[in-house]
Amino acid sequence: MTTNRQLGVCTWTFGAQPLATTAAALARLGYDGVELLGDLDLYTATEAAQILGDHGLAVFSLTPANVDIAHPDAATRQAGIDYYYRLIEFAVALGKPLMSCHGLVGRIAPVTTQSEEDWLLLDSVQTISKRAGEAGLRVVFEVLNRYESHQINNHAQALDLVVRTGLDNVGVLLDAYHMNIEEANPAAALKAAGDKLWLYHVGDSNRAGIGCGHTDFAAQLRALDEIGYAAPIILECSAPGPNPFTPDKGAGWRETLETYLSDSRQWLLHRPAH
Question: How many separate domains does the chain show?
Answer without folding.
Answer: 1
